[in-house]
Amino acid sequence: MKGTPLRAVAVAAAAALALTGCGSGDDSDSAAGGEQGSAADVQAALDAGGELTVWAWEPTLTEVVTAFEAAYPNVKVNLVNAGTGNDQYTALQNAIAAGDGLPDVAQIEYYALPQFALAESVADLTGYGAADLADTFTPGPWSSVNTGGGIHGLPMDSGPMALFYNKEVFDRHGVEVPATWDEYVEAARTLHAADPQVYITNDVGDAGFTTSLIWQSGGQPFQVDGTSVAIDFTDDGSARFADTWQQLISEDLLAPVSSWSDQWYQGLANGTIASLATGAWMPANLMSGVADGTGKWQVAPLPQWEAGSNASAENGGSSLAIPAKAANKALAYGFMSYANAGDGVKIRVDGGAFPATTAELQSPEFLATEFPYFAGQQANQIFAESAGNVVDGWSYLPFQVYANSVFNDTVGQAYVSDTPLADALASWRDTCATYGTDQGFTVS
After folding, report:
1. Could you tell me the CATH number of the domain that includes residue 182?
2. Could you tell me which of 96, 60, 123 has the C-alpha nearest to residue 330?
3. Do 356 and 399 reside in the same domain of the chain?
4. pLDDT of the residue at 1
5. Residues of the chain with pLDDT under 70
6. 385 within some domain
């Protein structure tokens, strides 16, 4: 679930495509695939069979495809890895522009989905019965696919946040696990004072992490209504994040290490990076990349902005969506439903994916799973509670991929200069607003 480098040129094409697609009306089926389908169409398509092409990089889908084809022997599924994240989005946008070579199903991360929905490049799934699945999924992923005035994907996984911490390091220095972000700052000071080589976490500026903490704080810096966009980092939630995180930056309490680098893995292994606030998909990365941490690391609830609260946010996660001009939307929806809301869910969870479905998160078996890496801790209980506490009302920009690509050019300056974080966020706002305006959005 690690982030993918973003190329602004691809995003520029996406935003331009979004605006040319809005209200074009040249192909009613392209804009309203869900409205013109029905649940009966889906069953009929599954019975009749056919061939599907699915673009996705998520590894557990391989076993899902095998099981799906066994359940529906008249259906052949071609699973294609067209690249991870932005690489696939570039290929998808090229296929959309060319009107040729489109997959029937595509994996699209939650933050990127709005730009495809606004472009009317992915089908609204409402007509196929997607709205009936509202209670099937946890709040964060479900709100993420409800974008652009319809349901434009089905959640595949989720990233409810938690605090992963090196208990051995915390215990060595007599530091309690922080329950609030103010306590987190104090813990950072204590750890670094006790051992100047130890930092409570690393951060050199990360768009996904920043927006997740603002989300948890109740901030709503992005407001989207069609092609009208408001961007404002002076709201209470954004300001609270900036004020708190500024202390860590100003006091040099953050390890100047990029996530997913060799130095980052080394820091997690040797205890110089003592915690991570991130999504519930992290255990597999720790187990594979920080094997020496077995028995040392544990999981705690995400620190709160207000003592006694239970607010959380998502960090990462993907949907499966249907391109608006896909040849067989009904059959495609049948596969998506199987993979994300049917028998495929257990297959994926057993393969290590973190579910976006309420039933799995409430399953006694799932909740009782003991993680040897976390010294036998039943960490899924913490993740499941976090998933149910994701703050409502969050929105991404319809050009979020571009916004993330310029984050280090703007907000990143607060980490390497005297630029206050609040000013750096304002610079990010201005850069994004200029870009959005240039692409034809009305930005305020």
Report:
1. 3.40.190.10
2. 123
3. no
4. 40
5. 1-36
6. no
Residue 47 to residues 25, 75, 207, 320, 330, Cα–Cα distance (Å): 32, 9, 44, 22, 11
Domain of 97, in residue numbers: 8-158+316-362
- CB-count burial class (<10 Å; 0-12, 13-18, 19+) for 262: exposed
User: Which secondary-structure segment (H or E) carries 277?
Assistant: strand 275-279
**Judgement on whether residues 402 and 357 belong to the same structural domain of the protein:** no
Residue 406 counted as domain residue: yes
CA proximity to 275, closest of 250, 293, 251: 293
Same domain? 47 vs 130:
yes
pLDDT of residue 177: 98
Q: Residues 88, 102: one domain?
A: yes
Same domain, 124 and 171: no
Number of domains in the chain: 2
Token pair recorded at residue 256: 């100047």
pTM for the complete prediction? 0.82
Torsion of CA 397, 35, 358, 2, to 10 degrees: -40
Question: How far apart are alpha carbons 248 and 201 in whole angstroms?
Answer: 10
At 15 the pLDDT is 43
In a domain, 37, yes or no: yes
| DSSP labels, 223-256 | EEETTEEEE-TTSHHHHHHHHHHHHHHHTT-EE-
> Helix axis angle, 236-250 relative to 181-194, nearest 10°?
10
Say if CB 152 and CB 123 are below 8 A apart: yes
All residues at 6 or more sequence positions from 358 whose CB lies less than 8 Å from its CB, including other chains: 135, 136, 137, 138
* 205 and 286 co-located in one domain: yes
What is the reported pLDDT for 36? 63
**What is residue 35's predicted lDDT score, i.e. its pLDDT?**
47
Interatomic CA distance for residues 40 and 334, integer angstroms: 11
pLDDT of 279 reads: 93
367 in any annotated domain: no
Give the DSSP letter string of 339-392. HHHSTHHHHHHHTTPPP-BHHHHH-HHHHT--BGGGTTB-THHHHHHHHHTBPS
Residues 6+ apart with CB under 8 A from 137: 154, 155, 341, 356, 357, 358
Tell me how far apart the alpha carbons of residues 356 and 264 are, in angstroms, rounded to a whole number.
28
Closest residue by Cα to residue 321 from 301, 337, 298, 342:
337
Does one domain contain both 139 and 220? no
- Rounded Cα–Cα distance for residues 159 and 281 (Å): 6
Same domain membership, residue 307 and residue 402 = yes
